[in-house]
UniProtKB/TrEMBL annotation:
Name the record gives this protein: ABC transporter permease
UniProt keyword annotation of Metal-binding present: no
Pfam families named in the record: BPD_transp_1
ABC transmembrane type-1 domain location: 73-257
Highest taxon of the lineage: Bacteria
Transmembrane segments: 77-99, 111-133, 139-158, 191-215, 235-253
Keywords assigned: Cell membrane, Membrane, Transmembrane, Transmembrane helix, Transport
One cellular-component annotation, GO: plasma membrane
Length: 269
């Protein structure tokens, strides 16, 4: 495992060294593409609180996260999680309902196929008209970006339950509720959780765009602000923070899926 990680770090480290050398010798303008060392300095300075800690004025934790970068990261992460909960909370029950009812699926499937390909970014003008500026339009866009991946995977999971399980449960006298709770829901859970993993990734993409339009803090807003002043090191630092948060979120979702699907992994082995 350690050797595999070491090998995986070879290419990124080599690219960083090459980038640093080319920037230092003047191949790239420092305004357009600053060296990694300058980006690291800018990124680290953004992590530091702006004022010294004064006991009694605020808690140490709030002071620790009062730096520009931690504050924006927390704001973006809060929007991602809030929008994800709203979108997934609506998508899962609707997906279970449409997946178990052929009549409802046939009725709503054409509408879903029309709306699903529309990217959440296309809703930005309507979101601003409907909700104004601030968090409401951002949460609407994030929830929308989460909704369809979770919905589609939930429907697919329910409709692809092996008929052998259904027939076996019926032969054992299971009623509709028992069938749903003990057969359909467990069999569809890998699809539902996979949809959630895709959905939270989409939510993180959407939040950056939404923050460039509708709010006054967050990583997307800070990147847009840096662009106005040609602060390329700050832009790349913000992008680095997005990548780190995305890696943490995806790793957390992967571990959660593995934990909740221990029984499914056991059956596969």
């Amino acid at each position: 495992m350690a050797l595999s990680r070491l090998r995986g770090a070879i290419v990124p480290v080599a690219l960083l060294i090459l980038w640093e050398i080319l920037s230092r010798v003047g191949v790239f303008s420092p305004i357009v593409l600053p060296p990694p060392s300058a980006v690291a300095v800018k990124w680290y300075s953004g992590l530091l609180p702006g004022l010294p800690y004064e006991p009694g004025s605020q808690s140490y934790l709030s002071w620790l996260f009062s730096g520009e970068m931690p504050h924006d990261a927390v704001a973006s992460l809060a929007r991602v999680l809030s929008g994800f909960v709203i979108g997934a909370g609506l998508a899962v029950p609707i997906g279970l309902l449409l997946g178990t009812s052929d009549r409802l699926y046939g009725l709503f499937s054409p509408l879903l196929e029309i709306l699903r390909p529309i990217p959440p970014i296309a809703y930005i003008p309507l979101a601003i008209v409907w909700f104004g500026l601030g968090n409401p339009p951002a949460l609407f866009l994030i929830a929308l970006g989460t909704f369809f991946p979770v919905l589609v995977n939930t429907i697919a999971g329910v409709r692809q339950v092996d008929s052998i399980y259904i027939r076996a449960a019926r032969n054992l006298g299971a009623n509709s509720w028992t069938m749903f709770r003990r057969v359909i829901l467990p069999a569809a859970s890998p699809f539902v959780l996979a949809g959630m993993r895709i959905g939270i990734g989409t939510a993180f993409i959407v939040v950056i765009v939404a923050e460039m339009i509708a709010v006054s803090d967050g990583l997307g807003y800070r990147i847009l602000e840096a662009r106005e002043y040609m602060w390329s090191d700050k832009i790349i630092g913000g992008m680095l923070t997005i990548g780190i948060l995305g890696l943490i979120i995806d790793g957390g979702m992967s571990r959660l899926n593995d934990h909740l699907l221990r029984w499914h992994r056991g059956l596969e082995r």
